[in-house]
C-alpha cells in the first residue's frame, strides 16, 4: 500500500493538483500533476504522470458546475487512480495569510475562521482557497491539512517595505504591503544553496514572470522587498493586470467615467496588462514576434517595467549579485530574458549568448559582475514539503 500527499491549488475557474508519493526515508516523489480547468464554463479534467505522459483528459461538462463539483470529480479520479492508497495529508495554497501567518499552519476549525476574516483582503481568491479545505474536512475528516500562504515568505520585511503611507486609522484595518508569489520565491531560495551556491547568501533579484508577475529582493535567502503589495495588482505588467498605476486613474474610473466597483475590478484584474495594451492576447507567446504595433508595445512595456523595477530592487539591496528568472515567461522565453538583461546591462550583466537558450542553469558569462540564472520554480513541491514537515511525515 502506498502513501500519498495531495497538493491543491484552487482558483475561481480552475483546480490544480499534484499527488506526491512518500518514499522510504527520502523526499516526496511526484506521481501526477493535473487540473480541472473551465469550472463554470466547459470543465475539463486533465493529468499527467511525472514523466509528462497523459493519464486522463476528459470533459466534465454536465457533471461539474462549480468548485464543489470539481472537488468531487477530483476525489473520484483519485480513488480510481490510487485505489488502496492512503492520503497522509493535504496541502493547500492559500493566497492570503495576513499579518499573522508568517509560516504554514496545520488547519484547525479556528484557523479556517481566521482565514475567512482575510476574505476582504483577497475576495477573488481566498474563498476559492478555503472551499477545498472545508470539502476535505467534511469528506475525509481523518486527513490532516496544511495551509501554505503566498504572503508568508515576505513577513519579516523591514517596516518601511511593508508600509502603505495612509492614515493610521486606515492602516489599522490591515492596509499594508503583503507581497505574493511567496511559495515560488521560497522554493527558489531553498534550492539556491545547491543550484547556485555562490549567490545563495548574496543579493538576489528573483523575477517570477508568469501570467502573474513580480520581483522579489532576497538578501541571504530572505525576502526584503517585493513588487506586489496590498493586492496582486501592484508592480510589474502582467497578463491581464496593469501593475503599478497612478491611483488617480482609479479615481478617474469612478468619478470621471462613472464606472461601478465591479466594472473597475474587472478592468484592473481582467482587462489590463498585456491584454489591455495589445488588444490581442494576455499570453506572451501570442505577442512576441507578432508584427502588430500594439503587440510590440505590450512586449516593450513588459520589458521596460520589469527593468525599471529591477533597478528599484537593486537600489534597495544596495547592488545586486544575481538575477534569477523563473515561471512561465521567465523559464521559457530567451527573448524576453535577453531584452530585460540588455535593459539592465548597467548593473554589470554580461550574458552568455550561447547559454541564453538554456533552462536550469547560469546564462551569464563567468566574468559577469551580476550573474544571471534560469531556475524552474515548483510551488507545489514547496507545499508538499511544508505539509510533510508540519505533519511529521518526512
Ligand atoms: P501562472 O502559473 O501564473 O498561470 P505560468 O507561470 O504558468 O503562469 O506562466 C504562464 C505564462 O507563461 C503564459 O501565459 C505565457 O504568457 C507564458 N509562457 C509560457 N511559455 C512561454 C514561451 N515559450 N515564451 C513566452 N511566454 C511563455
Q: What is the compact description of this entry?
A:
The protein is α/β, with parallel strands linked by helices and 394 residues long.
Could you describe the 3D structure shown?
This protein has 394 residues and is an alpha/beta fold. The protein folds into 2 domains: 169 residues, Nucleotidyltransferase, domain 5; 178 residues, 2-Layer Sandwich (Nucleotidyltransferase, domain 5). 36% of the residues lie in helices and 21% in strands. The strands form 2 sheets. It has an 8-stranded mixed β-sheet, sandwiched between helices. Strands 11-10-9-12-14-13 form a 6-stranded mixed β-sheet, with helices on both faces. Strand 1 and strand 2 form a beta hairpin. Adenosine-5'-diphosphate binds next to helix 10 and helix 12. The site of adenosine-5'-diphosphate has 13 residues, from helix 10 and helix 12.
